[in-house]
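User: Last request for today: this protein with flavin-adenine dinucleotide, please.
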Amino acid sequence: MRTYEEAAHVVVVGAGQAGYQTAASLRERGHRGRITLIGDEGVLPYERPPLSKAYLKGETDETQLWLRPETFYERHSVERVTGTAIAVDRDSRTVRLADGSAHGYDHLVLATGALPRNLPVTGHGLRGVRTLRTLRDADALRKGLVDAEHVVVVGAGFIGLEFAAAARGLGHAVTVVEGLGRPLARVTSAPTAEHFTRLHEERGNELLFGQGVARFHDDGDGRVAAVDLTDGRRLPADLVLVGVGVTPCTELAEGAGLAVAGGIVTDARLLTSDPRISAVGDCAAFPHPRSSTHLRIESVQTAVDHARLVADRLTGTPRAYDDLPWFWSTQFSTTLQIAGLSRGYDTELVLGEDSSSFSVLLFRGDELIAVESVNRSGDHMAARRILGSGVPLTRQEAHAAGFTLKGHLKARSEGTVPVGV
Ligand SMILES: Cc1cc2nc3c(=O)[nH]c(=O)nc-3n(C[C@H](O)[C@H](O)[C@H](O)COP(=O)(O)OP(=O)(O)OC[C@H]3O[C@@H](n4cnc5c(N)ncnc54)[C@H](O)[C@@H]3O)c2cc1C
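Assistant: Here's the final one, the structure of the complex with flavin-adenine dinucleotide:
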């Protein structure tokens, strides 16, 4: 006998990483009802990470970004609809699109992602001042880089630094302006941030810390000509990338009267305040056993694992979300991988003598909460297993001479780590 979920019409709004994965995972798990995937970008669902890396440098083309070719959606009866969802009527369980069409649902999944923040300063709308989120943004930046003479990045987060690295690879010496005292200040430890500062400086990029943007200066023809900093300095600029974070797309949820607080609020099963509506990926603010507050995580891993959980629930296997967060970033030929959540760490321990290949273990009290690995993917994989399966690791053990994450994992699985080493 069919369960309710198997026959349900699932409508997914947002055809990005999380939206695509929800549809694909539903079919993988045997969902037999209709699946409608509504997206407003007018292209096949694609992966965003290469937009600030290989794609920006022209090393891959658009088709290589597609998560699946067009035939996948036909073969798996996923109805792709191009349009912008503008309202959800929860009483009639209908999503309305800007073109006037309406789609009824048994279950609705909001996978609307996030959009880059603008800098609210004079000149932010000038030509040449750009943000990076979509394929079209990346195309415009790629084009702009062809004849740009002075490239400035505002914000030394992952997007800003990855763009700066790619632009440097294309021959541009980039100036990165950051308001805080170091790069990646909200997302990595100081040793990792120092490594990336050095990396950029050695390659010829300039990083300016503790600097705000006062205004973007016009060339008299509606195009950016310079960036005025808060200390009075003027940087010449004909291409500016603003990478100062994103805002989750919550308008639909708010309009429908769902709980929204820094994201679409869900419970541990990723259900919103309406049990017929789930939220996944960048737009969702969800509880996690590793955090005392609701989290919103912008990563491929979270988008994919959220989608899988919702597909599990809708096909009859509900569970609480507790997947270990992990993330990566590539700049020049350096790869940073992060496992766990570093918020609230009080001690850091660097493993590895080589300044171009090391891991930083982050502890809260005596508990390992995150590991950042620079060019050490073996450490990253071991860290994911240690953190993900709750393998005990104390600070004292990590400080022991010759300690390695892989060795620790092996010893623990063989039961050979002496207590209180
Ligand atoms: C340049 C760049 C580089 C990145 N690099 C990395 C990386 O190296 N590693 C990593 O882990 N993560 C990286 N990320 C983050 C990662 O790509 C995101 O976390 C992930 O894409 C989130 O997936 P999502 O489906 O929640 O949102 P999105 O992929 O943004 O998809 C949301 C989709 O919903 C659509 N939409 C929104 N509202 C509506 C509406 N009302 N109607 C119809 N459609 C709508 C949007 O247009 C969009 O297509 C990067 C992101 C960017 C932008």
